[in-house]
Amino acid sequence: MTASPTKPVASIRWLAAPSSSLWLEQAISRPEEVLIDHAHCERKAAGAALQLMFRYPSSESLAEALSPLAQEELEHFDRVLALLQRRGIALRPLPAPAYGSRLAGEIRRQEPLRQLDSFLVAGLIEARSHERMALLAEHSPDPELRELYGDLLASEARHFGLYWLLCDQHWPREVIIPRLEALAAVEVEALSGELARPEDVRMHSVGVQPSSNG
Ligand SMILES: [Fe+2]
Ligand SMILES: [Fe+2]
Predict the structure, then answer these.
(1) How far, in Å, CA of 39 to CA of 74, rounded?
(2) All residues at 6 or more sequence positions from 81 whose CB lies less than 8 Å from its CB, including other chains
(3) How far apart are CA 207 and CA 214, in angstroms?
(4) Rounded to the nearest 10 degrees, what angle do helices 60-86 and 31-55 cross at?
(5) Of the candidates 40, 49, 123, 51, the residue with the CA atom closest to the CA atom of residue 77
(6) Is residue 201 a contact partner of residue 32, using CB atoms and an 8 Å limit?
(7) Which ligand has the minimum distance to the alpha carbon of residue 156?
(8) How far is the CA of 45 from the centre of ligand 2 (A)?
(9) What is the CA(178)–ligand 2 centre distance, in A?
(10) Is 70 within 8 Å of 49 (Cβ atoms)?
């Protein structure tokens, strides 16, 4: 099968560059690692939403958005875990790619900028997850995996929309857009390069198409 992501991200304004065909090929050839990593990603996405609720406990708008999001991520976690268990695959720890820590390192320390950056980084991670799940939903040779990723897609799209709304509620567009563009460039940088070992493929391992305008 030739994996060719042709039109996966045109509608996602968050991402500065689409994932590469090479990432898709690597992910399809190591479904077990990607599934285990996916379970960990869902758990971390729930944790990130909860962490924000703990950091800003008095914000009702934030709680209203992030409490259902955290619950939904845990439902996704349960679903991936159940699939792993049916297949007899242990939920073992896997070394994470540098992606998450690279992006977390970009979050400015001082409030209120810390909050804006936290929303944007979480939204970028959701957007990339959505994009890559869409690729797997379309191209995975395993029908059960196509169904799993297909089912989760809509929620992941809603999730980056939600982080966008949180930004929009608290910040003017003139502040959000340039910061999003800067962080989106870092996100692509974090996914640039080549995978050292095939077993290191992850939902957020390197693999983006080189930008067309340098
Ligand atoms: Fe999720
Ligand atoms: Fe999500």
Answers:
(1) 9
(2) 39, 91
(3) 16
(4) 160
(5) 40
(6) no
(7) 2
(8) 6
(9) 23
(10) yes
d(CA 200, CA 68): 32
Closest ligand by atom to 48 CA: 2
Cα(74) to centroid(ligand 2), Å: 10
Residues written for the chain: 214
0.90 exceeded by pTM? yes
Measured in angstroms, how far is the CA atom of residue 72 from the centroid of ligand 2? 8
Helix (H) or strand (E) holding 67: helix 60-86
pLDDT at 12: 44
pLDDT given for residue 13 in this prediction: 77
The verdict on whether omega for the bond into residue 95 sits within 30 degrees of 0, i.e. cis, is no
d(CA 46, CA 29): 27
Expressed in angstroms and rounded, the spacing between residue 56 Cα and the centre of ligand 2 is: 20
Q: How confident is the model at residue 156 (pLDDT cuts 50, 70, 90)?
A: confident
Distance CA 93, CA 37 (A): 8
Task: Please give the structure tokens belonging to residue 209.
Answer: 């198409």
